[in-house]
Amino acid sequence: MQQEQQSQQSQQSQPVFSGIWLPLVTPFAGGAVDHAALARLVARYAGSGIAGFVVCGSTGEAAALDEDEQLAVLDAVLAGAGVLPVMMGVSGSNVRQVQARVRRLADRPLAGLLAPAPYYVRPSQAGLLDYFRGLADSAAAPLVLYDIPYRTGVKIEPETMLALAAHPNIRAIKDCGGDYHGTQAAIADGRLAVLAGEDHQLLGTLCLGGAGAIIASAHLYPELFVALARAVAQQRLELARRIFHTLMPMIRQFFSEPNPGPLKAMLARQGWLRNELRAPMTPASEALEAALAQACEQIEAAAPGLLG
Asked: Where, by residue number, does the polypeptide cross the bilayer (predicted)?
């Protein structure tokens, strides 16, 4: 009990937007959200050392949930998260609707709102400045920019990102832009906490001075991802590299088919949820599931030596 309390105090003393954040999957059963499975997942990860939860991101199949379902999932996670902070995803192309949704979330105790650029419409950089500043003005919680151009069709350019960093309610960025120079510029500037959003960039971002990560792969073996981040912070880089190289075969497999299909397949094998997604998402192929199972066996064999 004393050790658990010390761990919780350590988590509370860290900057909010740092460490390993988990973008939770949304379990389904018979087409509906499986709240029992969701509660089990939250309880499992709350004790794993992660820094916080992200609800209704792309891994959570947010686009397939209506607003009532999203709020119900959020409230369930808030109820089970304990001292861990919770971030909520907000997205859309209709600016007024997204701002209204942000205002409706003001009564929830959120650590932040994760917001990508408006998808499909591909606004200019000036349009992005207006959009994110408007959301930040409307939000009770801090805004976390989500730069993911392969989903939205538009990149948050470094100059735009640094201009947004001047807003007092924009605090961090989930970096999926694939731009090394942009990542380095944000870290060097120091006003935004830079969180790796591409799982394979975790070690590189942390070694550059990034604050942490929001990564789907941490659903499996979260303790190893937490240990990796801790090893970098302690400048134990050889250990960090060993953990990263151990995890990379699994990470590569996870994203060889659309997320979160492969992830749900492995969580289903472990008994945490049903292997069910909402259309148009489909389950992982049998071949990929077998390859992932093999990669996980190798991680499990190596884990005792990596966690000490």
From this structure: none
